[in-house]
Structure formats: structure tokens, C-alpha cells
Amino acid sequence: MFENKTVREACEELRTDSENGLSYTEAAQRLQDNGANELKSARKKTKIESFFEQLNDPLIYVLLAAAAVSILLQEVSDAIIIIVVVLMNAFVGIIQEGKAQKALDSLKKLTSPKAIVIREGKEQEVQASSLVPGDIVCLDAGCQIPADMRLVKANNLKVEESALTGESLPIEKNADFLAGKGKGRGYKASSVPLGDRRNMAYMSTIVTNGRGLGIVTATGMNTEIGKIAALINDSQEEITPLQKRLGELGKMLSILSLGLCAALFFIAVLQHRNMAEMLITAISLAVAAVPEGLPAVVTICLALSVTRMVKVHTIVRRLPSVETLGAVSVVCSDKTGTLTQNKMTVEGCYINQRIIDGKELNVREHRELLQGMTLCNDAVQKDGSSIGDPTELALLNLAEQYGIRREALEKEMPRKKELPFDSGRKMMSTMHKNGSSNVTYTKGAPDVVLKRCSRILIRGNVTAMTETHRRQIQEAIEKMSSQALRTLAVAMRTGGTAPVERELTFIGMVGMRDPARPEAKGAVARFKQAGVTTVMITGDHVDTAFAIARQLGIVERQEQCMTGEEVQNLSEEKFLKKLDDVRVFARVSPEHKVRIVKGFKTRGNIVAMTGDGVNDAPSLKSADVGIAMGMTGTDVARQASDIILTDDNFATIEKAIEEGRGVYENIRKTVIFLLSSNLGEIMTMFLAVLCDIASPLKSSHILWINLITDSLPALALGVDENDGDSLMEEPPRKAKESLFARGGLACTCFYGLLIAGISLTAFFTVPYELLMSKGAPFSISNIALALQNEEILMRAQTYAFTVLGMSQLFHAVGMRDIHRSVFRMNHLENKWMIVAFLLGFVLQISVTEVPVLIQAFGTVHLELHEWIRLTILAAFPLLAHELMVFLQKPEKDVCNQVKMESIRIDR
């Protein structure tokens, strides 16, 4: 690593001359050996590959099998409908593809297109892509660094590295710095965080001040940003918890379908039935097991949720990530620009022998302090834009709050001479004309300025500085530093013809930092209530990170902080144990961030990662949900993310998690509704086969119910309103929680059997009435005989079809909230359910009343009295819902009392 090598050692290793650079011949040879200074792209997947990748899903396999079976049964229209559903889902998935490639394209745009290089002793402008290790590159303020380099010279050189390291301020560079200097023999220079390598400059960072000269040490994919590109390229697309659950559901349905076929084949053998006929029946039953509309319903539910989330300043780039938000148990957040405002702000001032808030200054009493930090300042604010060092901009912003603007003030007190900031002196001075005389203002590190002061300004009076004064100032410096404030002192000297930095009069001192976002503290507290842990991950110093984290309520003790060096040196086992307590990670590299995110995932958490810089991109992709800042975030971070916050507001994540929990709850209700309905269809047919009687349903009836009657209320359930406050009081669901957890399986089985029971009751009603009218005993054999009559069978199937379809409409109404009576639900909250219910009824009625549909579905016309009887029978799932709510009520009331009591105690 070149940060622990001297300039001479670096030149020797890279076989170059720090004055004359490489020869043209050597540069050309190295370019051929090392390749262009460019980031490599991952191989793009073809459209065909992307298409087949979308089909690689167990539930899709089942649907395709159902389509094939439909073709075998000559139900071509059924097969076409299923295939259209599959294709629609595939095309939606293809649109979401290609995040890694887009992120790499964004990284390429960040790299500098040209560079000033010294070759054979001559400066020349070349394409940055032609740079090679050993080239000598000239750096100036405003330029983008074209490659990683070891600095040879650094004259007041400052580099903005926040996008790469997370450091909130420009880094002052020093060519004479050595990473290993003064360390013990066991010290590893390679463990030095990027932000602490003062003698290095890295590709894509920006020179904000000064000039420099550097030797190129790495190009292309070997640079630090190249390593990030490799991490993005290598990271695998994580499947979401919902995708895992739906995959498990697809496998379960596949097994169920095969099991049904095998069971019916076994029954056929025992009953000596026609094997070919039973095979067709078995396949029809397997098709009934598949909820054909489920993938489309889930996709539409997520898409509608995405539309709602736009209203709360959230853009969703990947549909399944909406639901994943609801399961998030850990939010790993970058500090700079996410939890903080990414804007240095003066928070405290030491003046007149006391520390006061920056908002408590008085222009009349504290004018010299405001005037000094405004005039002794090189930052520029003009036409709404700000240029300069963030600390100097913070001073101008403070002065502007009190009506003092640099441009106007300099007209009254023009700058005559100056002593620029120097890293050796750690201060700067400017001389200004003040009436008939001159005044010099000095600004710099408090301990250095204090040594140059012999007097102090107290309440407008200049007095000699005593040891007591010095001790008070030193105590103020220590107090501000303990709060992770960056301190600057301001002093003055009157008279003279040139600025002099001795015998100064101490005016005061300011403490500043990048402040926490005001809404972030409340969001962290609400996350705690919702069982979500907030973790800060930053490239900034540990003291600064701890101060902000404590202010936000993320940590309470210093021991809850860990540095990147500690992360790197810990074994995997020890590191994972530490994650139970550590809540702040400071001075971390992109690789460390990825390890932290993966560590929390290994511990069984669903992890959301927020960030805005290039250095956050790999961890954004590694997280279950990557969340990028839309306003201040880099293009790389946005392309690597799943979700973008358009208002850069950390508190918006809370709303997004609430929405995610609501989406999952709706999808869970939808899945239970669809599967209980399908179970009713399966059991209706299976029990009839066991009884050796004709099938109560045709395959066209099943598909109509699955795609039309089921799907409309299922979509309505998908957009149902949920009690957000109630959802956010619950802990996040576990990563491995099944869709059938928390009573879901029992609910599915109960309603499935109930729907099957009432459907068979309707089916048996027709032969029962016929047998009763003829005085024949009601038995299975007589029923089977009666159903051999085509007219009787068609009417019985119409009864079963009608009750099955309508019962699922009633069932959907109750599924909105299985713990609340339908008479206590606000049905106007979900107008789609009203529309779905009424439209479902109209469609079901049309199948028995419209001649064309009667012929297509093999149904018969029903009289009004028949409709009344069948509607009452179909309403049984809703009656059962009311009975279950009534039986739950005493238990629920007790639970609510216990819950309210626990909340009262906590408060």
C-alpha cells in the first residue's frame, strides 16, 4: 500500500521519475500491459435470458403445467388466459432488470475524461483513459481526480471525498504524511481507513482547494472506485421474503397437484372405474388447485402500492421491495446527508467568557465576532449558489442570519492584504481598510490562535489576557470538542501596514458540525416502538458519529461504537456476536459496510440500508432493501438502490415501512382468501369423486371462478386500508415467517371446508328434491343414478357453481378483517370491494341468465326463488365470520386491556 511509502519509495516501486514522469514509449507499453483506465462492464443479459429468468419460479411452473393440461383437455381459451397472465408477469419483471449495469454506467460517468500529465518533462493534456501507473499528474482546484495516486506535492490541497468515504468535510492532504509513521512493529498500514490516508488521492473525488502533484498508483478496476464497481457487479440479486414465500407456495401447490392425481388414480383402481376418464378428472382437479390469478393479483397489489408511496416522497424501483420493507428489522443508515443535513452549521459560540447558542448572538454586542468570521473568509455566496469550504460557508450563513453579508461588508472594509491558510500555521489572516486605519482578522485552530493572543475582547472592552482567561478558553475548547464540534477561533489586530499574526486580541470561538436532521430523532424513536433497530454506518470519525448517534437516541454508551479497523480485524464469529450491541460503525470502507449488512442478515434480520454516496452502492445492493437519497444522492447510489427517497428525509422510511407492512398484510389476506376458495373447489370435486358420483363442476367453471369471481375481490383486498398505527406497534415479522402463520393455515382450512360443504349441499339439493318427489330413499347410489340424467346434472352443477362463486364474494368481505364484525367495518374505505362484490354478483348471474354464456358454460336458467335459496346458502362464510368474531371478542378484550396496561407502565 502506497500510503506508508515515501515519495522516493513509491517512485522506485513504480519505476518513474517524480520530476520528468514516464517516457512516451514506457507509457504506451504500460497502457498495453495494464489496459485502459476505465471501469469494466458486466456482461449484459440478453432479452431472451431475462425473459426465461422471469419464468424461473415454482408458481409459474405450476401455471404453465396447468396451461398444458388445459390444451390436452381441449380447453384452449383457458390455456390462453393462463399464458397471458404468465407473460404479463414476465414483462413486468424484465422492466425491473439491469440495476448492476446501470450502476456501472453511472460510475463511468463519474470518472474524469481528461488529465494534465507530465511525460518526458513536459506537461500535456491527455485522455484520462490513457493514464498508467507511474504517470505524474497535475492537480488543480475544481478538477476531478482521474486515478488513484500517491501525492508528491500538496500546496493547501483539499479534496472532497464524501461520496467515497462518507467524510462530511474536505480532507486536507499532506504529501509528507506516512500511514505507518510512529506506529509499532505490528501495525498494518493496509488497515488505515481511506479518509485517513492524507498522502493519497482517489479517482472520482474532487479537488476543492490548492494545487498538487501525484504519482498514479492504480487505474481502472484496480482503483478504490473500481473495487466498488467490482462489488456491485459481483453482488447477487437477493430474492425478497415474499418471493421466498410465494416460491414455497408454488412448491406446495405442485406437490398438492401431484398428490391429488396420485390419490385419484389409486381411487380409480379401487373402484374399477374408467382409467382415461379418471385421468381427465384428476388433471382437472390439479388445475383447480392452482390460483391462476395470484401472480397477477400480487403484481397489481404491489404496483398500486408503488403509486401510493409516490405521495409520501418514495420512488420504488423494484416491486417486491415494497413488501420487504414491512419485514425490515434493522435499518442501517449512512450518517452524512441521511441522518444529518450534510451542511456545516454553527451550533455554539464562546464569547464574553461563556458558551452560548449560535442563535443567541446579538449584532450590537457581538459584531466584532460576526464581522471577523465574515471578512476572514474565502467562501463565496452569490445568486443562490455557494462555493468554498463548508466550515467557511457555515460562518457566512451564521452572519447572514444577523443581516451581515460579506459582499456588502467588503465594500465598507475592502481586503487589502492576506496571509492564506497554511496547514503548518493552521490559520489565515486578512487585512481590511477600516476608516483611516487598518484592521487584521485572524481565523484558525483555537489552540494555535490562543498562543498568538496577548489581549481579549470582553463586552466591547479590550483587556490583557490572563492565565485565568486562557484556562477558561481551553476549558471551552475541550467542552465543545467533547460534543464533536469543529472549533474555530477568531482574533483581531488593529493598525499596521501588513497582516501580522502576533499580539492578537482574542474575540471568540465558534463550534460547528453537520447537524442531525430534526425529524430523524422522532423517526428513530418510532422505529424502536415498531421493533426496528437503527444502526449508523459512516466513514466519519467515531467521536463525531457517537455525538450525533447519542443525540438521535441510537446509542447510549461509547462501547456501542466500533471502527472499521476493528470490523476488519475481528473473526466472523466474534463480529456476529458484537452485532447484538454495536449500533455505530465509524471510519468504515465500502467493504466493511457490505460485511456489516451481511452480518445482520446472517443473524436472521431483514436489513434496509440507506445511503447517498458512491461508497454506499455495494451495501445498498447487498441489503434486502437498498434506500438511496434522491436529492443529494449520487447517481450510482440511486441506480444500486431498490427505493429512492425524493425528499432525502430519514423519517420517510418510517412511512415506507408502514406501507410495506400494510402491503404484506393485504397480500397475506389475499393469499389466504384465494387458497381457501381453491381448497373449497378441490374438496367439492374430491369428495364427489370419493362418493363415485358425477363431478359437481366443469373445468370452465373452475377457471371462471379462479380468474374472474376470485380475482376481483382479491384485488380489492390488495388495496384495503389498514390501521397504520396498529401495524407500527407490532414487532416486524420474522424473515422465515410463513404466509400461513398466526392462524392463517387454520383460517384457510376452515373456510375451504365450509365453502366445499355448502357447494356440495347446493349440488345435492337437485337430486335430493327429485328423489323426495318420487319417494325414493336419499342414498349415494340413488344420487349417482339421478345425476346420470343430463338435465338434472346440469341444474345440480349450476347450483354448485353459483353457490361456490357467490360464497367467495361473501368470504372476501369478511376477510378484510377477521377480528372485526362486518357491521363495524367502514366499507366506504374500500370502494373497490363494493364494486368487486356487486360486479362479481352481476357476472355470476350473467352466467345463468345470458343465453350465450349459458351455452358456453353448460348452465341452466334459475328462477328467483332459487336465487334466494342459493344466496342464503352462499352467505354462510360471512355468517361464520360473525360467529368467530363474537367468540373471539372476550379474549380480544382481555388482550387489549393487557396491552394498554403495558403501554401505560412503559410511559
Can you put this structure into words, describing what you see?
The protein is α+β, with helices and mostly antiparallel strands. It contains 36 helices and 26 strands. The chain starts with 6 loop residues before the first helix and ends with a helix. The relative contact order is 0.09.
Question: What attributes characterize this protein structure?
Answer:
single chain, 907 residues, alpha+beta, nine-stranded mixed beta sheet, eight-stranded mixed beta sheet, 36 helices, 26 strands, elongated, disordered C terminus
Question: Layout of SSEs?
Answer:
Elements (H helix, E strand, L loop, with lengths): L6 H8 L9 H11 L12 H8 L3 H15 L3 H20 L3 H12 L3 E6 L2 E6 L8 E5 L7 E13 L1 H4 L5 E2 L27 E2 L4 E13 L5 H11 L6 H31 L3 H14 L5 H17 L3 E3 L3 H6 L4 E5 H5 L5 E7 L2 E4 L9 H9 L4 E3 L2 E3 L2 H12 L4 H7 L2 E8 L4 E8 L2 E8 L1 H6 L1 E6 L2 E4 L2 H16 L3 E9 L9 E10 L6 H10 L3 E5 L4 H11 L8 E3 H6 L2 H7 L5 E3 L3 H13 L4 E5 L5 H6 L2 E5 L5 H6 L2 E3 L6 H39 L8 H11 L1 H8 L5 H4 L16 H30 L6 H7 L3 H26 L15 H19 L1 H7 L6 H11 L1 H31 L1
Parallel strand pairs: 9-21, 9-24, 17-20, 21-23, 22-23, 24-25, 25-26
Antiparallel strand pairs: 1-2, 1-3, 3-7, 4-5, 4-6, 4-7, 8-26, 10-11, 10-20, 12-13, 14-15, 15-16, 16-19, 17-18, 19-20
Helix pairs in contact: 3-5, 4-5, 4-9, 4-10, 6-8, 9-10, 9-26, 10-27, 11-26, 11-28, 14-15, 26-28, 26-30, 26-32, 27-32, 28-33, 30-32, 32-33, 32-35, 32-36, 33-34
